[in-house]
């Protein structure tokens, strides 16, 4: 699976209240959730106005820490984000992303990647190319089991087919 | 093998190693009043009206927005009640309390079990040797259908805590101190095993306090092997072989701390690992104090607060909110005279539940307001935009409520 898109860069420890503020937890409609993606961050305004479908989030360590709310990856995916690249992911966020079919990949060297750069990501091999700076990085791809679930379109589709 | 390796080997039917991806059989699947409605919607959209894998192994608990605070919440709660009836699964309604505590009190979990639920603090069950994991709605919907969930087997770190604690220093101070040392991602993708005389001496509530904040270190789970006393309290006669680490178990790291000199600790805004001695920030004016939560809402926690509040008044202009974790805790607090102390002091005591964990519950702060809370998180905006939240023990919280400023209980 190859993903290509424009970068939105965020820092370390972006928690689930920044990704999706707790006050919107009662929402159940996914397109409504999408309107509040990243609303608790300091780039909320920009993100809402300028986000394009297919964009990619690049973040520092421990992305998605905090609560178990699945609204966090759902809102990002429904808003049009094609992939999240981070130095590390919080455990629950990582599995939620896999389970709903939001592509993610871990990569240590995010320092040189600038906001607005175009990245091309191979989810299977972990090769990440910065098409803007022409640099190539190697990320840590997800496990075989996680990739299978992501590719099936999420856990429930995967389990339904497996029965 | 470490404890988690033993538990996952049993639950997956294969000998596992750290880093393996496995499917584990589940002993209990729990959903709560929020999260739960979306689990049911997801479940029904994929699996229609198919029966859950085992109706005795699925439980619904109402603990956050209870009783329903608005019409949407009320509709969501009814959706769960209807699902419980149709699927013949147990539901603990608004008059019970925090889910994890309810399943412990009801004897629904045993050491060595694998439990999943829609609450990020499911891992407080590690305090009694249960492998509890917080998960999202999709995971729980899949778990209810299949009775299994996928896991990455974590590596394990060992945390050894030794030394007697000073007066007014308790489990919350110990875990805040460990958080300061390990940091908010110090246990990421790892399990913790807690050992040492300080831990071994702890009662049930203290063990729960310790295990609950493994979440704030991003850990999968933190185990404390139950003592004979804990097993007796739980009414269990369990063989501990499956939850005792082998002598040759491999640990990724070993941390050893002495807490003999430990002072009351407090996590300052806006991170649970921004921990200082209470005396370093003493004197900061507070607007509200909260005593409760899955971390510090049990009887011993309320008791610790009551010892300081007895015969005293909450400082004028300060709001003290006290919330027992469960109805059983509330009843014991009533019998033992704690309500008399709290109400006379001017506290608001609400019905059992999670209370001030996140926005959406009564007690949220206005911008610029300061709160000392016995809960487990102080992320920015979690309890109101622009609010400043400090995390501390019930004793520190009670002392602060009396003084109206952050106060070390030893200085009251």
Automatic annotation (TrEMBL), chain B:
Its EC number is 4.2.1.33. [4Fe-4S] cluster binds at residues 294, 354, 357. Gene3D superfamilies: Aconitase, domain 3 (3.30.499.10). The keyword Amino-acid biosynthesis applies. GO terms for molecular function: 3-isopropylmalate dehydratase activity; 4 iron, 4 sulfur cluster binding; metal ion binding. It comes from the Bacteria. InterPro entries: Acnase/IPM_dHydase_lsu_aba_1/3, Acoase/IPM_deHydtase_lsu_aba, Aconitase_4Fe-4S_BS, Aconitase_4Fe-4S_dom, HAcnase/IPMdehydase_lsu_prok, Homoacnase/IPMdehydase_lsu, IPM_dehydratase_rel_enz. Binds 1 [4Fe-4S] cluster per subunit. It catalyses: (2R,3S)-3-isopropylmalate = (2S)-2-isopropylmalate. PROSITE patterns: ACONITASE_1. Belongs to the aconitase/IPM isomerase family. LeuC type 2 subfamily. Heterodimer of LeuC and LeuD. This is 3-isopropylmalate dehydratase large subunit. It comes from candidate division WOR-3 bacterium 4484_100. The gene is leuC.
């Amino acid at each position: 699976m190859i993903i290509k898109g424009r970068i939105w860069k965020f820092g370390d420890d972006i928690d689930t209240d920044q990704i999706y503020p707790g006050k919107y937890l009662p929402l159940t409609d996914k397109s409504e959730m999408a309107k509040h993606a990243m609303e608790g961050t300091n780039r909320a305004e920009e993100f809402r106005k300028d986000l394009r479908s297919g964009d990619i989030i690049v973040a520092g360590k421990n992305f998605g820490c905090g609560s178990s709310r699945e609204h966090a990856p759902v809102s990002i995916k429904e808003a049009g984000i094609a992939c999240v690249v981070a130095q590390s992911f919080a455990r629950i966020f990582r599995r939620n992303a896999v389970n709903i079919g939001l592509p993610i990949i871990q990569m240590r060297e995010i320092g040189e990647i600038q906001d607005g750069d175009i990245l091309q990501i191979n989810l299977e091999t972990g090769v990440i190319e910065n098409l803007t700076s022409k640099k190539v990085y190697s990320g840590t791809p997800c496990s075989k089991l996680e990739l299978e679930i992501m590719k099936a379109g999420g856990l429930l589709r995967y389990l339904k087919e497996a029965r | 093998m470490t404890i988690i390796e033993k538990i996952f080997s049993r639950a997956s039917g294969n000998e596992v190693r750290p880093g393996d991806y496995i499917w584990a059989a589940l002993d209990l699947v729990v959903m709560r009043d929020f999260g739960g409605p979306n689990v049911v919607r997801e479940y029904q959209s994929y699996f229609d009206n198919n029966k859950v894998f085992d109706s005795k192994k699925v439980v619904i608990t109402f603990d956050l927005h209870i009783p329903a605070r608005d019409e949407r919440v009320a509709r969501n709660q009814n959706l769960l009640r209807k699902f419980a009836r149709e699927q013949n699964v147990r539901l603990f309604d608004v008059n019970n309390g925090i889910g994890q505590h309810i399943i412990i009190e009801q004897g629904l979990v045993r050491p060595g079990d694998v439990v999943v639920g829609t609450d990020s603090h499911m891992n407080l069950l590690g305090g009694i040797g249960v492998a509890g994991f917080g998960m999202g709605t999709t995971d729980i919907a899949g778990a209810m259908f299949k009775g299994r969930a996928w896991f990455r087997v974590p590596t394990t770190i060992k945390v050894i805590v030794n030394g007697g604690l000073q007066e007014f220093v308790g489990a919350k101070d110990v875990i805040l101190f460990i958080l300061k040392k390990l940091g908010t991602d110090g246990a990421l993708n790892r399990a913790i095993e807690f050992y040492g005389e300080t831990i071994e001496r702890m009662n049930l509530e203290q063990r729960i306090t310790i295990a609950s904040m493994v979440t704030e270190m991003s850990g999968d789970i933190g185990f404390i092997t139950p003592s004979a006393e804990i097993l007796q309290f739980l009414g269990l006669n369990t063989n501990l072989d499956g939850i005792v680490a082998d002598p040759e178990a491999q640990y990724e790291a070993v941390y050893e701390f002495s807490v003999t000199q430990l002072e009351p600790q407090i996590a300052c805004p806006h991170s649970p690992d921004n921990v200082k001695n209470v005396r370093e920030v003493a004197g900061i004016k507070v607007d509200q104090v909260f005593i409760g939560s899955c971390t510090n809402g049990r009887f011993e926690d309320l008791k610790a607060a009551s010892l300081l509040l007895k015969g005293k008044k909450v400082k004028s202009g300060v709001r003290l909110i006290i919330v027992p974790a469960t109805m059983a805790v509330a009843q014991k607090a009533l019998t033992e005279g704690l309500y008399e102390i709290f109400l006379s002091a001017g506290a608001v005591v609400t019905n059992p539940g999670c209370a001030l964990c996140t926005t959406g519950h009564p007690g949220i702060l206005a911008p610029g307001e300061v709160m000392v809370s016995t809960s487990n998180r102080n992320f920015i905006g979690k309890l109101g935009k622009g609010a400043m939240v400090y995390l501390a023990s019930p004793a520190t919280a009670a002392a602060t409520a009396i003084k109206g400023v952050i106060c070390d209980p030893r200085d009251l």
